[in-house]
């Protein structure tokens, strides 16, 4: 169920992707200078609505630990975080911190990592469509010197606070994890929403989390090619649903959100090419959703206050996050 492979000539794939990009394009919707995209759907009233969903004071982190045991293999230059200590407690105990007076000791550290190696948001400057990024800005606005001069992740440092909704596709299908190549269609999303009930209804400005179970399975059984390999994910046919629901963001527990292998012949992440630069839709990846899913299944409530601001790294095209579902 939900598996669909589209085999078509390369020129037909280009036509399909470009037609969807133009059909679902939001350029100019919030003015010619906008750099927030679909986060504009989150209004003050939406934040107040989301805050009212806190019923138990139950806080669930949705982040994978940022350490050397992560899923990265070096694909696309992404490696796992390298954590290094600069001062340590053993230094203090050995008396080698004599630059600090009166017995004062300290520990300090650094981290080196790609900004998209773990639980993270894609920024609106991350993906281009035919030389343009979100709102029609040229791809050349992302440079080696400055990073993203437009659509940098710092533009949405106050974003990602809204009503969150978990769609537990793995549980809905009666599986611990969907298989690689399993395409989650619009029809399947709607069936899951109906099965989960009223708290899973999707509204404007919501942030939707889709659980495939794939991250949990790979954490348990070994990462393998989780980062960059075949995976379950959204079908290309969900573009219309993503557009018309006017959600603020979509995130999954997979490396690339959309199904891999990609359905369209001779393509690479075609749904990204529609979502990010054209819709202005924010995409989250490598979200750890199993704990949240168990709690939602336990009480039958699938919506919550969701808080997941990015690090405001000036000019960055993506950012790590520690998303919180507060129930």
TrEMBL record:
Q: Which GO terms describe its molecular function?
A: arylformamidase activity
**Matching SUPFAM superfamilies:** Putative cyclase
Pfam families in alphabetical order: Cyclase
Query: Which GO biological process entries does UniProt record here?
Result: L-tryptophan catabolic process to kynurenine
InterPro entries per the UniProt record, alphabetical: KFase/CYL, KFase_sf
Write the protein's name: Cyclase family protein
């Amino acid at each position: 169920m939900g598996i669909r492979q589209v085999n078509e000539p390369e020129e037909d794939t280009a036509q399909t992707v470009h037609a969807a990009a133009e059909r679902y394009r939001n350029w100019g919707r919030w003015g010619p200078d906008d750099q927030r995209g679909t986060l504009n759907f989150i209004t003050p009233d939406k934040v107040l609505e989301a805050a009212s969903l806190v019923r138990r004071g139950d806080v669930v982190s949705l982040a994978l630990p940022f350490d050397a045991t992560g899923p990265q293999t070096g694909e696309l230059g992404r490696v796992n975080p390298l954590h290094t200590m600069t001062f340590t407690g053993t230094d203090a105990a050995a008396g080698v911190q004599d630059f600090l007076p009166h017995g004062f000791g300290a520990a300090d550290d650094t981290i080196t990592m790609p900004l998209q190696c773990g639980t993270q948001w894609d920024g609106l400057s991350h993906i281009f469509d035919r030389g343009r990024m979100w709102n029609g800005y040229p791809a050349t606005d992302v440079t080696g010197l400055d990073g993203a001069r437009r659509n940098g992740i710092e533009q949405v440092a106050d974003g990602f606070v809204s009503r969150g909704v978990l769609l537990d596709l793995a549980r809905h299908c009666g599986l611990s994890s969907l298989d690689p190549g399993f395409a989650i269609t619009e029809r399947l999303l709607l069936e899951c929403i109906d099965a989960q009930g009223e708290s899973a209804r999707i509204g404007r400005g919501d942030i939707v989390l889709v659980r495939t179970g794939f991250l949990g399975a790979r954490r348990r059984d070994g990462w393998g090619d989780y980062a960059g390999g075949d995976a379950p994910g959204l079908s290309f046919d969900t573009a219309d649903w993503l557009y018309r629901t006017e959600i603020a963001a979509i995130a999954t527990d997979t490396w690339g959100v959309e199904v891999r292998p990609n359905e369209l012949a001779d393509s690479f992440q075609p749904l990204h090419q529609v979502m990010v630069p054209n819709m202005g839709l924010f995409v989250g990846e490598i979200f750890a959703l199993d704990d949240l899913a168990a709690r939602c299944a336990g009480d039958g409530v699938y919506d919550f206050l969701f808080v997941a601001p990015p690090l405001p790294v000036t000019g960055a095209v993506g950012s790590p996050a520690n998303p919180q579902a507060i129930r």
